[in-house]
Amino acid sequence: MVKDNSGAADKRNLNATLAKMHAIYGKRLKSEDYSAMLSCTTVADAAGYIKHNTYLRRLFADIDTDTIHRGNLENILRRSLMEIYVKLIRFEKIGGEFYNYKIIKTEIDEILICILHLNAGTTDHITTLPIYMNKYTSFDLMELAQVRSFTELMSLVAKTPYYDILKEFTPVIHEDGSTEHIDYAGAELKLRTYYGNRLLESLSAFDKAAQKELREFIGTQFDIINIINAYRMIRYFGMETGKVKARMIPIYTRIPEKKLNELFSAESEKDFLEKFSRTYYGRVVAEEGYDIHDPETSLLRYRLKAAKRVFSRAQSAPVAFYTFNYLQEIEIKNIIRIIEGIRYSLPSKEIAELLLV
Amino acid sequence: MSSIEKMMFADIAGMDSELDAVLGIISSCGCFHMENAAAIHTSPGKNTVKRENPYTAPLKMLSEISVITGIKPEYADCSDIHDREAEGLAEEIRTMRNRIQKLSAEVRKAEEEEHAHSRALEEVLHLSGGGENFSALNMDLDQIFACKHIKVRFGRLPADSYDKLPYYDDKNFYFPVYGRDKEYCYGFCFAPTADIEEVDQILDSLYFERIRLPDFVHGNAADAAEALKGDIENDKKLVEEKRRQMTEFIEEKRPQINKYFTKLKTMHDTFELREKVMIIRDKFYIVGFVPQKDEERFRKYFEGLKTVSLIMKPCDENGEIETPVKLKNNKFSEPFSMFVELYGLPSYSDINPTGFVAISYTLLFGIMFGDLGQGFLVLLLGIVLWKWKKMTLGRIMERLGVSSMIFGTLYGSVFGYEELLDPVYESLGISFLPFKAIHSINTVLYAAIGIGIAMIIISVLVNVVMGFKEKNYERALFSNNGIAGLVFYCSLLMLLLGGMLGFKVGGPVYIICLIVLPLVVMFLREPLGELCKGKGFHIHESAGDFIAANFFECFEYLLGYATNTLSFVRVGGFVLSHAGMMSVVLALAEMSGHMSPVVMIIGNLFVMCLEGLLVGIQVLRLEFYEMFSRYYTGGGKAFEPVKVDLDEMIE
User: Which class is B113-234 in CATH?
Assistant: First the structure.
């Protein structure tokens, strides 16, 4: 494991880690890098640009970018996020429950993918499996890829907290031997709620200022996830009033629950956008000059900007650590979007619109 | 003395048949600034003469040659090519370009062959490098790939994917690995022919990168490697031979390419001038500016032309096109025009401030960076930069170096040694020199302020003169940089000086007439200016707005006088800092034992670079901010004579 599980907070002055994060962040991709990548016409060209012109060159030192498989390229980029995460933790040997959040998130993500495969009856989970995480996770990812039934899944996670969370989703087996689908949405809600609560509880180990900053930033993250999910449910699935609220992760931060209930009970997309514009997020999004009619992109842009602000001012290592890793994640996602866009021959203008910068 | 070159407005008209000859003259004479004739000649039947430039295509071919060879064409004498022959050069250039393209393709092909063999060797070396797990490595590769019932895939699997292979234990394939690095595992994948499709899908999902050994690889790995090494040697020789052939051809054709380029570019650029020519029926019109001193020379070019008329008149008579500006400077001030151009050229009716900038800049730099030794180095560096690099800054540095040496002599400072010149002055019997700045701090600071006051007063006086010249009485008389401002500033200074030195200046009459009244005049400068123009005493906005705006502006003027004057304290500050910094260098040299020459050299270089740069910037700031802001606006248009640009390629 990356950390010790004592749960004790690391109260040392972690200025060196802080400085290291700023040093890495200073080398981040600039708009001209994105423009250069967007002007590439092949995945090999884009990979070549990353290899020869960006700080990510270390990832591709032993790679021939002319022949690299796109899937492998994306895998290397995603793996680099974990490498930096681990490197930072090991740099000053930071410990504590909080620093485990990325592993827990990976475990939850993979369990949910496994459920999707079980429901769909497919067996190719192995292809997307982040095998490089196997040495950190609390269950064997290779075994997870081999799971073919809910019972097998439960026996794999038997000794983990996921067992208790998932047991209520045991599907009904009919007399004829057929099995009902696992309630994916329910399982996702429970697992994500568990993740959020565990993450927020782990903050109590830090001093009050750090706790406050992280609570606000992580809370905002859940607010935004909820709002975006609600918007999608209402816009794309026309979900009935009242059902939306039940699908929300019950972690609310910047909007009072009453106001959120109003938002989640919107009867149409128009009604939702109107109510959204009166919330805290609606106001800040408008103040930033983002398109209020596209809450999804606007909120993600707002969150990115907030992350940059919090990171640049952060005095405390956990605050900087969390926001830094978030910023790294966005950068890697942007690169992957560009690579996918090039692969599927999207016009560079359209790819550029998908980027969060 | 510096001034602005007098310009003549030239209006050229003639018959279409002589247009090319006229364009040839104006592009080669080097003294004609061309304007768009449409701005002057207005007629319903007018049109500009723009058609496709016939010289673009051959120039593009020359550009292609330049890209292939990496050699930029240079100027060459092309007087033996007549203008009429220029268009006909295209065919010859095309032949040349095609030959160079062919040679280049041959070089590329040979290089690609070498690359392919080198790549194959790399892969084969992977094969011969491992082998513990795979006895077939010593087998003939042809035999491996020729198996009928077993299909073989050779390549690399990402290390992450290799870890996933146990998942496929139940599948019918075998993947022995014979080598690995940080990212990849190299190996062969064997599968029965019947299962190969499924296995290929699995390998693809694991991001397997298949390496297809080229047909020319035969035998076992070791034999193949040996054969490939031989091939690579041969390839290298072939590449060398092809390159030699290409270089020889290019060298042979180079003088011709340069000559054609010079001719075609001249013709091309001349042709481009047609955009600014106005044609009315079969007559053409060209307008532009010629410096007065070149008028006669310019006229002479047109003497042989029958249908062309050239009318030249002084620029003041022409108000429709802004007259371009060419600064006229003497040898000393010439390089300083760089600073003036940086700020913006003066307008044609304005003054040329280069002379004032040259003197004040040189003087202030010398005062602030006075050191005989370091000044000498600045002078040497200036000479080097100008002679070898043709940098205008080098010429400025020459002047600044001399100034620094003069003031360094007065201060008695040589590379930080403040006592080195003392015996010289003693032997000459000069007791008041050298001037030790560090021992007379107050004198230095007061002198700096004195210099500042003088500079500000000169700037205001220049502004007054300019105001009268333009008949702008608001600027000359009533503004903060006019007579009113000057009276106010000088009176206030006298009052302060009187207080400091103890002589009596002041009294109610003095204060009312010389301080309050100028202030009131500055407050009312706009309506007073209108009054002088005979438009009556009018205030265009409401009384409240007028009072509020002018109150704050007057307040800003007051602050401006104070801050601008005090700003010159930096002149004194740098005199002291030079002495201070050099004393640190001396102390460090002494500390490191017997005046270490290494410390002295490094210290001197450090102080010279740091202080030289800082002083240079600070003086420029004083010039632009404290002085230019009082009398100079810039905004003029540069005189740009038509010329052929041989540095520009047509792509």
Answer: alpha beta
